[in-house]
Structures are given as C-alpha cells and as structure tokens.
Fold each of these.
Amino acid sequence: MSKHPRVAGSAAASRPAASRLGAHPRHQEALALFDAGRFFAAHEAWEELWLAARATRRRAGASAPAADEQLLHALVKLAAAGVKVGERKLPAARHHASGARALLAALASDTLLDAGLARARLGAVADALARGELAPLGAAAPGA
C-alpha cells in the first residue's frame, strides 16, 4: 500500500479497462518510469490505477478481480521487486517477483497485448528481478 495520500479526482479516478489500459496516460507514465529505473514512482502510478480498479469492482459488487485489475496488481508487484533490488533486499525482491509471475500466469495473452506488454518479456523481467538484476520492460506502444 502506498505511503502517500491519494488525490481525489486524480487521472486514475476512472477504472482503466484492459482494452484501454495500454493507452491510459498513467500506465504509459508508469512504463516509462519503470524503464528509467524509477521503480518506486512506477509502483505508485500502477498502484493508483490498481486501487481505482479494485474500488470500482467492489462498488459494483463483483467478488473476483477482472483481468485489468490482476494485470495492474502484477505490475505493482514487479515495480516493488525493482525497489527491493535497489535496496539490496533480494528475498523481498524474489517474493514480489514471484507474486507478479503468479498473477501474470492467470492472464490471457490478449490482456497483456492490449496493455502493450508481452508475456515473455514480463516473465524475463520477473526472473531478472528475482535474481537481483534490473531489466526494463521495453513495452511496445499500444497498437504497435
């Protein structure tokens, strides 16, 4: 959970559907932050989107997370793994990377592609982080 207060009415106030996540400005910002090695800032950006998606689901009375919510949760965990690698806390990095992999394994490939991500690349990044190595996502632009 974030250590910073949420700003009401932020850009993440609307739930980013998986088909729109790739074009969502906050997601694009988080991808750029992650690839620049700014893992905490990427974590904050994705967490904002993830919490908005979760709140929307709960208000709607749905119990199971939708694909977009699961993907965002996985990205939050990948960014957290990057933070832990930077802090040289390898067991914690492994824990977060493993959690991200588990969430990603349950997602359909089209969910990832809609967000401008590839399963193989996400897996490679999770593996690198679990080894204590930093690796960019190098995500493709939506529709590319």
Amino acid sequence: METLIALLAGALTTAGIWLMLSGHLLRFLFGLMLISNAVNLAIFTAGRLSMGRPPLLEPGGAPAPEMANALPQALLLTAIVIGFGLFAFALALTIRAFRAFGHLEVDRMRLAEPEPAEPELAGPELARPEKPAGAM
C-alpha cells in the first residue's frame, strides 16, 4: 500500500512540474496544487500507514504497541491549511493578472520590463572615431 501511494505522489509531482513549466498562469496554479497534494501524500506515507489504529493512549497512560503516529497526521493537517492559503493567494494574483493583462500567458506578461533598446553597431569599422582632446 505504501509503494502504491509513493508512486501516486511521484505521478502527481511529475504532472505538477509539467503543468508549471507550460507557460500558462492557470496551469501553473493547478501544477502548484498537484505538487502540494503530492507532498501531503508523501508526508502521510512517511508516517507509516496504520489502518484502524487510533493515535490515542490507553487508559493508564501507557502507549499501546499498535498505536498510530499522530505527528504525521498533525503535519498533514497543517500542510493542508498552508496549501489552501497559498492556493487562495495565488488565485487572487492570477485573477489580478488577468484583469491587468487580459490573458494568462506568462511569456507575454512583460509590462514591468523596459522596452529593448535599438541594438548598437559594434566593431571598429562601424564605431564613431573619438575626437582628440584639444579638438572641438
């Protein structure tokens, strides 16, 4: 079971990276969510799956020999909340970018970059000769 979930986390990571490299902001956002879910699955699997075992102490305070580990479950809940917050923030930025640019293609979003200048001619035969120090 752990091997299957690890393969699923790898497949989600692969699909997420592929979507993030596509050059479209909405696909980037979906890829980010896939990677977030893949990390959640990896944390869950690393905590060793224990089916039907609660992470509780027996009456008397002694830990049961077949008790589930509560730490990965707490980390997973925290990761879900952080992932949701990240998704909400990225979605708000995506909506703002769509309203500002009218599209979601990352390569066309060049508003903050300066316009390229005309290429200068290079080479000694095309360059202007320098004036001597005393000449006007």
Amino acid sequence: MQKFNPPKITHACIDLGLLHYALTSDGEFIEVPKFFRKSEHRLSKLQVRLARKQKHSKSWKILKRKIAKLYQIIIARQHLDWQFKLAYYFFSDVSVIFVEDLQIANLVRRCKAKLANNGQFLPKNCGYAPPLLRG
C-alpha cells in the first residue's frame, strides 16, 4: 500500500496599495507599467494631425480610426495582457492566496471640516484641536 503524501501548501499574501500596485508577503513591490506614457508621444502626434484636418472629411475619419486603434489595441490590450501575466505569476506556484479587502474610497476620502466654539474651522488633521480651542 502506498503512502499518501499531501501536497505542500504554500501561501502568499497580496496587499494592494495606492503608491504601489501590490506588495507580496515576500516583500516584493509590484509597480504598474506605464503603457500610456510610452505611447503618449505617438498618440499626441496623431491627435495634432487630426486637429488640422477638416472635421468629418474622409482623411479625418481615417485618422480618427487610427487613434482609436492605437488606444484600444496597443495601450488597453497591453494593460490587460500584463494583468493576466501577473495573475499567472501569482497563481503558478502558490496554492492559497490571501487578498486584503479594503474600500479604497474610504482611504482617500477627506475629513469633514469641523467648527470650533468661536466659529473658526479646526486644523485639517481631523479632530485635533489645540488646547486653546477646546471648549
């Protein structure tokens, strides 16, 4: 009779952030490639040429299609391809992944302004009032 060897369970934690795309439990920072920045020069050249054309002419429509194609195919699909490759990188050698579930909108929301007793607004650091203004 053969012994059953359970597979080794490996795990990874992924923390999504505002400054970096993700941080893994191994301490690896993952940055977002700047696909738009790389194609921005080419896109701006086409848009300048488009601005010089007469609106709704045949050459204007052709150039408009070129701009849409550049954005859709080159920029958007590169970003989608990068996301699939990143997902494959995470899931290829790991059996369990822990992902933090945060409401990003709550992290970047600003504090509501608060009034002191004398009618002045308190400083921006959310609820801290200097001892003179506390009432």
